[in-house]
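Colleagues,

Please find the record for the two-part complex below.
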Amino acid sequence: MRWGEVLVKGLLALCALVSVATTLGIVVALLVPAVEFFQAVPIRDYLTGTEWAPLFEPAHFGVVPLVVGTLSVTLWACLVAMPFGLGAAIYLSEYARPRTRSVLKPSLEVLAGIPTVVFGYFALTWVTPFLRDIGLDAEIFNALSAGLVIGVMLIPTVASLSEDAMSAVPQALRDGAYGLGSNKLQVSLRVVVPAAVSGIIASFVLAISRAVGETMIVLLAAGQQPVIDWNPLHAVETMTAFIAATGQGDVPTGSIEYKTIFAVGLTLFVATFLMNIVSIRLVRRYREVYE
Amino acid sequence: MSVAPTIGRRSHGRVSQLLFKAFLLFSLLVGFVTLGVLLVDVLKDGLPALSWSLFTDPPSSDPEIAGARPAIIATILMMLLLIVMAIPVGVATALYLEEYANKERWYNRFLEVNIQNLAAVPSIVYGILGLAFLVRGLGLGRVLRAGAMSRTLLVLPTIIIASREAIRAVPSSIRDGGLALGATKWQVIWRQILPAAIPGIATGSILGVSRAIGETAPLLLIGAVTYISFDPTILGPFTALPIQIYQWVRLPQAEFRELAAAAIIVLLVLLLTLNAFAIWIRNRYQKRW
């Protein structure tokens, strides 16, 4: 083999290593300060504590309120993203003509290209007043409007991944069901959806992971109230909002407040990492079955 | 198949079919209607506040004379840095994975899963990475360069995935033809595969860059939330359009909300231009094999 060729391969591999270095960097960046944090705060107190007040005297470091806030927003996001994302996917894959699909799919993707800060503005200045107009007793910052907007934002994510999985279902399965006298509804719901179920679940898991990790919308619209409160009309604080709100100030490096950013960041990273891996596995499974 | 017996029994379904189709259409509409309402809301609030001073003046505590000039300049600088840093590394990684990597090896499979996972890591985590390593670890400080670097890492997975698809779409007959004529592997890649894949790579990269331009969360941690009245440089403190929007939205006065909406219009127009450019490249140059 020529020297130049070997050199090129080496250079390309080096570039590929950047992404490995990124992962490594994330893990180290989170782990080192987090370990120091857990030397000061027992990990048990952190995971089970129900009071979150890291900047007060006496400080409390129970992460449960942040987790509840995150889950509350995520729940509402999923209630929007999952049914409508799946509905859009079924329409695109089973009902739309190829021409219609080639217009609708990219148009739906426009939603995914809107910056999250714009969605945050929309949640705060339009959705929350709208909720009040229809008679809900919503606080200015509330989990519901943030959750609903995140849900709409995630519709293309769910739709696009689910549609990929449904398109991979062999036509023979559909033809077989039609041959037995089924109609389109039956073919969609009882043949295509079950056959594509691993891809659909993968899209759901990815949507949860995205909702958990979403920052700007919750920072602008859901508030900064670390309380255990499942009422969607009240303000909450999510893990991401805490990180963003604390990290933008000038917290002294090495202080316990500084380290909480990394402890919460590690919690967030581990949670989303596990979901991403599940999602990647599921996608690979349907690809192996049908492709 | 186990579903077969139930199929004949429920053939009444005209109404249920109709309802189902209505639900599916409604699902699509939810997205489009929201998009429409959002755009109308932004235009209604923002158009009156949209003026030249937004482009020529620095931010101010007086909404009458406040502009977003530093933020707009920083966003454009950031975009150039992103293109220079993210696209070469992303395309090189894609070339390695598609043309060189042996998929049987564990490290190449690891590389692939790693990139897929990075694509789904919350953007704020990239901010933490930037805060720990670039701003404080390397001591770059809260400067534009650090912001651009962490955004580069953020978009790399998107660019890699798009470039891989574009490279994969080049038929292997082109590869084999080149090799059969005695070209080396790199000559085939450089002269045949890359030129053929460039429309796809360009489209994917521009979409990735435009997403990064709108990404706010990592910049919050890297410290773009500062008051800047001068034109930013690569080595200096900076702000960015989405950050400027975030700061204005949070202020209580209605005038600042309107300024935020005006800045959103500027941001959306910028992103729309980038996206339209990407689609134009795709339609103009894409080949069907």
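Residues 53-285 of chain B form a domain with the MetI-like fold fold (CATH 1.10.3720.10).

Comments are welcome before we finalize the supplementary table.
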